[in-house]
Amino acid sequence: MATIYDVAKAAGVSPKTVSRVLNGDAPVNEKTRAAVHAAIGQLNYVPSSAARTMRSQRSGLVGMITGAISTSPHFEPTGLPEIYLVQGAQRVFAEHNLTLLIADTGGHAERVPDLLHTFLEHRVEGILYVAEYHQEVHLPGNLRGRHMVLVNCFDAVGTPCVLPDDEGGQFAVVDGLIGKGHTRIGFLTLPERQAARPHRTEGYRKALAKHGIAFDEDLVIAGAISDVAHEYDLLWDALDRLLRIPDPPTVICCANDKMAMRVYGLLRERGLEIPKDICLVGYDDYRMISEHMHPPLSSVDLPYGAMGARAAAKLIRLISGTSKPNEPSRELVSGPVAWRESVRPRDRVVTPFQTWRRET
Amino acid sequence: MATIYDVAKAAGVSPKTVSRVLNGDAPVNEKTRAAVHAAIGQLNYVPSSAARTMRSQRSGLVGMITGAISTSPHFEPTGLPEIYLVQGAQRVFAEHNLTLLIADTGGHAERVPDLLHTFLEHRVEGILYVAEYHQEVHLPGNLRGRHMVLVNCFDAVGTPCVLPDDEGGQFAVVDGLIGKGHTRIGFLTLPERQAARPHRTEGYRKALAKHGIAFDEDLVIAGAISDVAHEYDLLWDALDRLLRIPDPPTVICCANDKMAMRVYGLLRERGLEIPKDICLVGYDDYRMISEHMHPPLSSVDLPYGAMGARAAAKLIRLISGTSKPNEPSRELVSGPVAWRESVRPRDRVVTPFQTWRRET
DNA sequence: ATGGTTTATGACACCGATGTCATGACATCG
DNA sequence: CGATGTCATGACATCGGTGTCATAAACCAT
């Protein structure tokens, strides 16, 4: 590879002048500048980030640790969120001339220290620590004192973090459903241990309260439990109970799109047609699912791309020291509700529950 | 940050000796080694990759360019494949003490030169160029002469590449279906422009040929076209034609899981139950879809993780110059067929087509 | 005892940028 | 016209490691 000395020689100037042309830190005569640029083109010169890093003590690198946490032995490497996070973050970093280093633990949390060491060798200027789903994490101590932003997770000591606005998302979808005339809104929730669950439930309650609709606990049932083995039975039972209550729901909110996908099948088995007989909404808006279900599934967008971008911006502010003094350490990111054909207004839904109940 | 000089001073040795302890390139006395390690721990020393890079001319970095190609204006950022690729590749790189730089074009191919320049500044030792789906690409000229491996794509000049074994995958699934007694096997193919299509079709033909079953062109219809706007109508029509032929299929192979997902809905609309009345298989094995369909979908695993790992290994061989002299520039990676409940043996399938035809 | 080899260590230069300081050529001003 | 300031450029040291070479001590064989 050509060096700055080669360029200097070819252009008949000193290396320092070439440096000035590249960095614009001092005026350079127009003719000199042209000669230098010509030499650079000729030699295919690309400056060495390593040399620059040594002198300036700035690496231009940021690290991202993903897949770091495997709380469940049935770790499910769906990976979907991460790619959007990466894209969102990388876009922002690129605008600030930062390059993204990526390390994936593959679910083995014990690899984190090693990966971190590698990052430090490369003198990353900051680190994004990404969790698979909204949860609390406990960071290894050697991360202290580094610029860092947690994404999709938070810790007990107030490390800056970016989280999905679960309460806002659930509020928005329930508020929207009520706006379409629904008043009996079933809610198949996440397992109890999930950090998002209380926030989602709070959003559900607040939306009801806004419209003066009483909260009915019969309408809210866990649609999944931590123990994956019995998940399917549980969902069947939860749905069964929802449909058997005296005044059954005209729409069901599922905790995520995967759950909604199964509910499609279960409802069809019972002879219920979506959205004619009952409406359905999901959460996450995995478009690969929601757009291709039949009919397409309404869902709350879990804005991973935006979260990545917001986290990157936050990290850049930390690095550059331009954080506002009272900037909150916790940022919530909202996504829109994607309304699709799985939902129609209440007055166009005809719940044939009596019929169905007679049959079983 | 502590430097090697600080460590040397603290341990009472020369910097070079510290370097030897770190790299093990020459024998060091046991007591000296212990003193050095103690000093390293004390000072929290992490060697600077920048300084090491300058001297040794090896950066320990490899780059990956993803999302580079947007052939379609309706670019669909599913992103699913990439995360597995990243994980697979990163695992192998980590074993070789290489760190992965990631740049995502977000579908804007014109950004590639810039991203590439950044990679070169960091003196990456090799580059993986990843396409969204199996296709031909044309690389910008300035990539020539770099160690590079194409993933999920190939070019006209024989750049080393790693591709999914589309022929083998389709062969395996059709061979398996025939093994289960099926002889009338419908095939909803990819759009014509897709590079994978001829390979898949060849696999389909070879599996039939192996068992002496005649190829029936009525059974093979494009299930999708490039023009996204009419995709759904086309699929409806293709399925309709498949089901109306004199001796209709007992199982249908879909070109991908998204298509299969829609076919679930379309078949149900026609009153056909999977797998009782007709069986279905997909391709890609997006487990988020295949495992959660009702019933779960049989599908050919498109082994992105393995492709990432194979590509990484290939790149490492290029970098280290240990490629076998006659190593093929093109590597095919196969994945297993995931058999699930959407398929059952032929003798347990009761096709009620006569009934259905009377109705319509 | 002596020469040859191995072991353990240090001195020093170098990788390729850039920060600091110095310098010469002009332009401007009182 | 000399003092002062601005512009354009170069010399040199430095960032933190490692390759090369030198050297001293310990070990071994004759």
UniProtKB/TrEMBL annotation, chains A, B:
CDD domains: HTH_LacI, PBP1_sucrose_transcription_regulator. Residues 2-56 form the HTH lacI-type domain. It holds the Pfam family Peripla_BP_3. This is Alanine racemase. Keywords: DNA-binding, Repressor, Transcription, Transcription regulation. The lineage of its organism: Bacteria, Pseudomonadati, Pseudomonadota, Alphaproteobacteria, Hyphomicrobiales. It comes from Devosia nitrariae. InterPro entries: HTH_LacI, LacI/GalR-like_sensor, Lambda_DNA-bd_dom_sf, Peripla_BP_I. It comes from the Bacteria.
